[in-house]
Amino acid sequence: MSDLLARHRAVMPNWLSLYYNEPIEIVGGKGNRVVDASGKSYLDFFAGILTNMIGYDVAEVREAVERQLATGVVHTSTVYLLRGQVELAEKIARLSGIEDAKVFFTNSGTEANETALLLATYARKSDQVLAMRQSYHGRSFGAVSVTSNRSWKNNSLSPLNVHFLHGADRHLAQFRGMSDADYIAACVEDLRHVLATSVGGDVAALIAEPIQGVGGFTMAPDGLFAAYKEVLDAEGILFISDEVQTGWGRTGSAFFGIANHGVTPDMMTFAKGLGNGFAVGGVVARGDLMDGLHAVGLATFGGNPISMAAANATLDYVLDHDLQANAARTGALIIDGLREAAPRLPVVGDVRGKGLMFAVELVDPATGAPSPALAARFMEETKKAGLLAGKGGLHGNVLRMAPPLTLTLDEAAEGLGIIVNALEVVNAEVVSS
Ligand SMILES: Cc1ncc(COP(=O)(O)O)c(C=O)c1O
């Protein structure tokens, strides 16, 4: 065991799990590649869990942060005017498509979701919330209560009364083989049934990830949330889209993931990629909802001058370089390549994705059961070959990958080659055993 790993084990929580049999320390990065402490280089297909959105050592972001540092001001407070916040809020409000949108900045996705849930429960005078099965929304009591993955829940303590919906779980036996239209109809029926049977009085909101991150990039067929929204609108139930993983063009086909469903939500939450590694989160909401709270509030570090400098530079970079189009182009190359390889690899149970957010599900070919062990083997193989991937899903058998939006076509082809090769190695081991 390395010295650093031993020290980590001694003082860090044991539930802070590390990837790989021999965990790595990343000590350098440039473009879409990182280097570990041994000097080994990796093409980064996980990007700090979708957070290094435009890669490493980006001059525009570095210089924006350095300019702010040079003013001598790292923090002022929200009791003073913050130019960076106003500028970024203007951009996000415009991009959101939400009417009269206003923005509140936080430090994380968890805090962003707490804020959105506060706005919704306050506006609707209700503690009842709908969420999706297999979701992940963060680690505070409120965010965990709308999370639907037992591996991420320590207990059932909750400030909210939550009911969970189908919609991202068409692999379940009762939905298998259904067309998109039939599955959407079944899920809308489920929503109506929950509203008829499980709630009392008004419901505040539905919170949903357009593509579930921790859930293993599971996703509802396009159009499900539009169908849900008709039912929600009839009862005045608000809709919160958690865009922490799906925002800023990552899905290639839309700037925010929910737009793939043709829906403009009442609020969106964001974090991760916006600061390209600097801590920033927030919620963009209809102005009446945002202004509706009667108490004052602030987040001390939320939207601080450094994170705003980084976030403004990152968002400008995404827009100036049309990285959404790049995500569509490079993502299609990889997803098409994976789909082409899948039929000859019985360990591959499913390939899914949109833009630069794609996943491969590994199963035991004999039984079709989810195989976290094979996913772990894949992780070791790709590490050896110089590619960082992620793991997730309810059963820990989903390989999820989301490279920086700056990925080049050459890097996409290189990464695809490494992934397919690793799948072939894992597949051959199973077949020969
Ligand atoms: C969809 C989604 N929402 C919320 C969160 C929580 O964000 P944070 O870890 O910044 O609190 C995450 C984190 O993985 C996420 O994936």
Stretches with pLDDT under 50, minimum 5 residues: none
Percentage of residues in DSSP E strands: 15-25%
- Average pLDDT confidence is 97
Our count of helices gives 13
Helix content: 25-40%
Main pleated sheet: 7 strands, mixed
Q: Separation of termini? A: 29 Å
Rg value: 21 Å
Compounds present? pyridoxal-5'-phosphate
Q: Could you say which overall geometry the principal axes of the C-alpha atoms support?
A: globular
H/E series, N to C? HEEEHHHEHEHEHEHEEEHHHEEHEEEH
With strands numbered from the N-terminus, the spatial order across the biggest sheet is 4-10-9-8-7-5-6
Number of strand elements: 15
- The helix/strand class is alpha/beta
Protein name: alanine--glyoxylate transaminase
Cofactor: pyridoxal 5'-phosphate
Keywords: Aminotransferase, Pyridoxal phosphate, Transferase
GO molecular function, one term: transaminase activity
Protein described:
With about 425 residues, this protein is an alpha/beta fold. It is about 40% helix and about 15% strand. It is built from 13 helices and 15 strands. The protein has helices at about 5-10, 45-50, 60-70, 85-95, 110-125, 140-145, 180-195, 225-235, 285-290, 305-320, 325-340, 370-385, 410-430, and strands at about 25-30, 35, 40-45, 100-105, 130, 160-165, 205-210, 240, 265-270, 280-285, 350-355, 360, 385-390, 390, 400. The strands form three sheets. Strands 4-10-9-8-7-5-6 form a seven-stranded mixed beta sheet, sandwiched between helices. Strands 1-2-3-13 form a four-stranded mixed beta sheet. β5, α6 and β6 form a beta-alpha-beta unit. The longest helix is centred in the last third of the chain and has 24 residues, at about 410-430. The model has no long low-confidence stretch (mean pLDDT about 95). Bound molecules: pyridoxal-5'-phosphate. Pyridoxal-5'-phosphate binds near residues 109, 113, 137, 245 and 271. GO terms for molecular function: transaminase activity. Homotetramer. Keywords: Aminotransferase, Pyridoxal phosphate, Transferase.
